[in-house]
Amino acid sequence: MARPVEYDLNKVLDSAMEIFWQKGYEGVSMAELVSHTGLNRRTMYSLFKDKEGLFKDALENYYSKLSAQKLTILKNNPGKKGIELFFQSFTFKKDFKGCLFSNTMREKDFVSEETYNITKEYFNNVRLGMEENLTQAKEDGDFTGDVKAMALTIETFIHGFHVHGKYNSSKEDSQIIIKNLLSMIR
């Protein structure tokens, strides 16, 4: 009689999320996923169907554990203060991996539209959250610019920041960049 397979789904998804975050979707082989997650190939295919199924679940895991908090910060802290708090954790450091969602945006041609839309939806929600906070900042007298233009600028900035941090590990530089971005909200 075969032994029942034992695994912790949260640990599997965390492990998959980490390797996809480091290497990207296209850069990870099934053999690496099997090795990194500790699952055997049969169990992996049974649970996730294929590599993209695991990737999609890893993206959902990333959203629930890391990205959803960012949106909650914006929602719970109206106006300019929420935007400032949103960027508090944006810090370069050694081995900076950027954002799994930003990294995935570059791999659009390698994943299905459904999987890609997970990242697209997140950034759409960030932009909408920024628009709400900027609108409130405008009502508070903390912002006089164009709400939509600034929200789009911030969304674009987030992608660039995550790419830049992959080759610049200076915490001081990241603080300078964020301070400059926030100074544009006036």
Structure overview:
With 186 residues, the chain is an all-alpha fold. It has a single domain, classed as Orthogonal Bundle (Tetracycline Repressor, domain 2). The protein has 9 helices and no strands. α4 runs parallel beside α7 and α7 crosses α8. The mean pLDDT is 94.
Summarize the structure.
69% of the residues lie in helices and 0% in strands. By secondary structure, the protein is mostly helical.
Task: Record keyword descriptors for this entry.
69% helix, mainly alpha, Tetracycline Repressor, domain 2, single chain, elongated, 186 residues, 9 helices
Topology diagram in text:
Layout: H1 9-23, H2 30-37, H3 41-48, H4 51-76, H5 80-86, H6 100-105, H7 113-139, H8 147-164, H9 171-183
Helix pairs in contact: 1-2, 1-4, 3-4, 4-5, 4-7, 5-7, 7-8
Could you estimate the helical fraction of the residues in percent? Answer: 55-70%
Individual helix count: 9
C-alpha-based Rg, rounded: 19 Å
The assigned structural class equals mainly alpha
Specify the oligomeric state.
single chain
Provide the CATH architecture: Orthogonal Bundle
State the order of secondary-structure elements, H for helix, E for strand: HHHHHHHHH
Q: CATH topology, what is it called?
A: Tetracycline Repressor, domain 2
Class, according to the CATH hierarchy? Mainly Alpha
CATH H-level superfamily title: Tetracycline Repressor, domain 2
What composes the largest sheet? none
What is the count of distinct domains? 1
Low-confidence stretches: none
